[in-house]
Amino acid sequence: MITVHTDSEGAQIEVELSGEVTSKDYSETLVPAIEAALADHDAVRMLAIVQPEFQGYDLGAAWADTKLGLSHWRGFDRIAVAADQGWVRSGVHLAAPILPCPVQVFDLAELEAARRWMRESLGAIHVTDLGGPCVQISLMGKLDPDQYKQAERDLDAVLSTKDGFRLLIDLREFDGWQGLTALAAHFRLARGHIGLLDRAAIVGDKAWQHIAQRVASHVLGARTQFFPSEEFESAKAWLAAG
Predict the structure, then answer these.
(1) pTM for the full model?
(2) Which residue segments constitute the domains of the chain, with CATH numbers given?
(3) Which is the most buried residue in 83, 91, 167, 240, by most CB within 10 A?
(4) Total Cβ atoms within 10 A of residue 210
(5) Closest to 142 (Cα-Cα) out of 78, 93, 82, 72
(6) 185-226: pLDDT as tens digits
(7) How many Å apart are CA 100 and CA 184, to the nearest integer?
(8) Which residues partner with 81 through β-bridges?
């Protein structure tokens, strides 16, 4: 059985699973709720609450679940699963890396924590004017596509007042992207401003960030340099010099 609860704005759905779930549960309850939400929103957040008496899917429901995922692959912004059954939790952990959105698993006793995770922002992008041609972009937490939309507006507003563009990319508190759509938004933002860039400094501690700087030096057509976190002030000085 599937029971669906939708928040007042329609962008967040709670799905309660109990007993045996059938294909009829999908076709008559879950799919209409998701499609109604996607009619008004680019993506939805879904919390699946797996009750202790949940027995699993029949074959028709398993196929319906696969079709739902494929047909609405880009329709989910975030998925949380609250469950105590080990086989459910293991299945979600195995599937999470291939899904295009963040996925988190909670115990049933952590249901309120799951709801908070569904509501909260997991990351932020701050654009700071450093004076002269220099701009700092700080990537923090795990980023979603909406944060890139706001960052692009903020960056364009700052650049409209400048003659030249030198960029300090602060990755000291960056934890990655919330799925493939956020990663695509990152590349769109970079692609839209590459032609303006004169120099870039990247500050961080992870090995992949240093590798990214080396790749960027060949792609951007601009001088780039990597600095470890403790050399943050040196990065700002290098950016402004010359």
Answers:
(1) 0.55
(2) 2-119 (3.30.750.24), 123-240 (3.40.50.10600)
(3) 167
(4) 14
(5) 78
(6) 888 888 888 888 889 999 998 887 777 777 766 666 678 889
(7) 11
(8) 48, 105
Could you give the CA distance from residue 28 to residue 26 in angstroms, rounded to a whole number?
6
d(CA 30, CA 44): 13
pLDDT 10s digits, 40-89: 887 888 999 999 999 888 777 666 666 666 566 677 888 999 999 999 99
- Dihedral sign, Cα of residue 137, residue 139, residue 145, residue 150: negative
**CA gap 17, 171 in Å, rounded:** 40
Residue 141 near residue 147, CB atoms below 8 Å: no
Tell me how long the chain is. Answer: 242
User: What residue ranges in the chain does DSSP mark as E strands?
Assistant: 2-6, 12-17, 20-21, 44-50, 56-57, 76-82, 103-106, 123-131, 134-143, 166-177, 199-204, 223-228
